[in-house]
Amino acid sequence: MRFEKLRLLGFKSFVEPTEFIIEGGLTGVVGPNGCGKSNLVEALRWVMGESSYKNMRASGMDDVIFSGSGGRPSRNTAEVSLFLDNADRTAPAAFNQDDTLQVTRRIEREAGSAYKINGRDARAKDVQLLFADQSTGARSPSMVGQGRIGELIQAKPQARRALLEEAAGISGLHSRRHDAELR
Ligand code: ATP
Ligand code: MG
């Protein structure tokens, strides 16, 4: 699967509907300080299942909703959709009949957030596993936040092992085994 497009509606500073086409070979996003580069990366992490608002530079998950600026009123919802190209048919079996996958996460003020995969309700865990199986996701080593490099270098062996497992695309298996053992 390949990231194709990211669509933001009312997420952080992206109050106007915004679509980013993610073309092959994209190597950088440039722009002046405060223009929304980090917000963009956070939107990508959020739609892939980030559960910690602290990792979103927020003091509560509702902080990802546009809070108003320059005379524009705040919003009550935010929505991010990630479109995935599945031409290579590597999506999980449940979705593999489709050429494109659309993963959407929507949050409403004081009401929490919900996910959909191709228009159908999904659990956070379904979304997290979908990306973990592709060796990516909100916490994966493919998304290294500012200031995390030092953390990776100083990590204890256990944490470093978790990192290698994520890179190898097997962290989803651990999560499934944990569930199976609980049953
Ligand atoms: P830098 O180059 O300094 O790293 P950046 O391009 O990464 O900048 P961001 O951190 O993505 O910039 O964007 C910061 C801007 O987003 C600030 O102006 C901040 O006010 C705005 N912002 C963050 N959260 C919200 C929100 N919930 N509602 C409205 N604006 C927000
Ligand atoms: Mg930044």
From TrEMBL:
It is found in: Cytoplasm. ATP binds at P32, N33, G34, C35, G36, K37, S38, N39. It comes from the Bacteria. Belongs to the SMC family. Required for chromosome condensation and partitioning. Contains large globular domains required for ATP hydrolysis at each terminus and a third globular domain forming a flexible hinge near the middle of the molecule. These domains are separated by coiled-coil structures. Homodimer. This is Chromosome partition protein Smc. The chain holds residues 1 to 183 of 1153 of the full protein.
